[in-house]
Amino acid sequence: MTTRIAVALATLAGVGMGAAGMRSLNAQPGPSVYQIGMISVSNADGFAKEYLPPAQAAIKAHGGVYVAAGPGTVIEGAPPGTRFVVIRWQSLAQLKGWWESPEYTAAHKIGEKYAKFTVVAVKGVPQ
Description:
The chain is α+β, with helices and mostly antiparallel strands and 127 residues long. The chain has four helices and four strands, in the order αβαββααβ. It has two domains: 1-28; 33-123, Alpha-Beta Plaits, CATH 3.30.70.100. The radius of gyration is 24 Å and the shape is globular.
């Protein structure tokens, strides 16, 4: 009888540990945050050569992922820019960490010579 109890307890412990492990495997972080940039470029050459390389390097270094970028197609209204970018971040804190980083602060100062920026953050919708 003692062996049966030990086997039953071991089985229950194994089931409990397996359930806890599955819960942690299925746990997913909250929804991503999407940065939407609407940019009015006044000097395309300076923008492309002086601003984009350090800005893109800073985005990558801070974990941002480009989802879309380019001139866009207007469906309705008058957008505040001629170029658009959508970047995915794991959290608003991660986005703000990049935005306030020394690397991007320096790149943004350069970018302001060649463009005007409108940037918003939108929280993703859980799927």
